[in-house]
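Figure 6 in text form: structure in, sequence out.
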């Protein structure tokens, strides 16, 4: 965890190690949002540059079976 100093102009320098890991470059835009008791900085990414970034990811998951009662399909759900 890196500790940064807030300047008199309320500026913060993102440490080099974090910039390198996140691929942040000078001049890029970021969203700054308050979340609970912290501040989050989220880099704005061009969606087209993300193409192929998830290649090879495992997209399989266990599905929940259809709603079946005694071998019969339930046509409506009562609440």
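Output sequence:
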């Amino acid at each position: 965890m890196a500790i940064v100093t807030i300047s008199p102009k309320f500026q913060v320098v993102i440490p080099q190690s974090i910039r390198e890991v996140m691929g942040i470059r000078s001049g890029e835009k970021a969203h700054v949002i308050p979340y609970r008791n912290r501040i989050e900085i989220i880099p704005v990414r061009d969606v087209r540059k993300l193409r192929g970034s998830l290649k090879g990811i495992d997209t399989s998951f266990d599905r929940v079976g259809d709603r079946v009662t005694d071998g019969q399909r339930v046509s409506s759900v009562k609440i």
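Caption detail: The longest helix spans residues 16-22.
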